[in-house]
Amino acid sequence: MTAPPDALVVVGIDGSRTSMTAIRLAAREAVLHSRPLRLVHTFNWVADPSEPMPEEPRRPAEELLSRAAALASQAQPGLDISCALIEGPVITTLLRESGSAALLVIGDGGLGIDPDVTASSAATAVQIAARAGCTVLVARQQLPSVGPVLVGVDGSASSLSALDYAFDTAARHCTDLMVVQVCDPDGTDGGPPPEVVEQLAEAVAPWQRKYPSVRVDQQVRTGDPESALAQETRRAELVVVSARGDEPWRGMLGSVSQAMLYHSASPVAVVRNAHGLYVQA
Length: 281
Hints:
Blueprint: E1 8-12, H1 17-32, E2 37-43, H2 55-75, E3 81-87, H3 90-98, E4 101-107, H4 119-131, E5 135-139, E6 149-153, H5 157-173, E7 177-183, H6 194-210, E8 216-222, H7 225-232, E9 238-242, H8 255-263, E10 268-271
Helix pairs in contact: 1-2, 3-4, 5-6, 7-8
């Protein structure tokens, strides 16, 4: 699914260290995709709703946006940057922003540091990743080290969207791509079934022809998908998963994408499904 040429990269900021990292990641993606960057900070004014917001509470929010814009400009000089201070709930505001964005970047709310963070902190990142109208990039507190892009696939139509996004990202980042599929073991020797290995190669081939410069490592493993992918995230620059994978009936996120939000050591891109996506090399 290709975003309109004028769609922005949007980043939600709250002043935390993780949101500062999100700004740097968002600025890089904006440059790599030749898109403007929009910095959004929400201000949930809970006093008398009939009264305008006084200047004093607004000032720290405006100063935060100013610092954020300076950081983005320092990270990527010459980047087209705009700022928005929006009154309202964080989740509602960012979901609305995602409807016209090419990419929404947010912090993980502490998930990458402590999987037992409060439900409210977790809910923000998880709900936005599950319900956004565009791909969501969830940043960790630290900037990722240089490494391959890791994408988890499961043979579903949804995972083709993740594969497409991962190839494009690896090409833009000038890095390698690791494609991992996890399945049940073969009944004879306990290894991956040969037909799954063949199916993965067939799925990857059109994108490999489209992106010949990307070096690809294809792996079919047996066992638990969440655990297998979580182990590989330690050396990945970015982890890419589809929102629901082979579980389109789920109302929110699939089990693998949700597990990556909680357990990935690297930033996670949750890709929305593009129905009928197909690459003709």
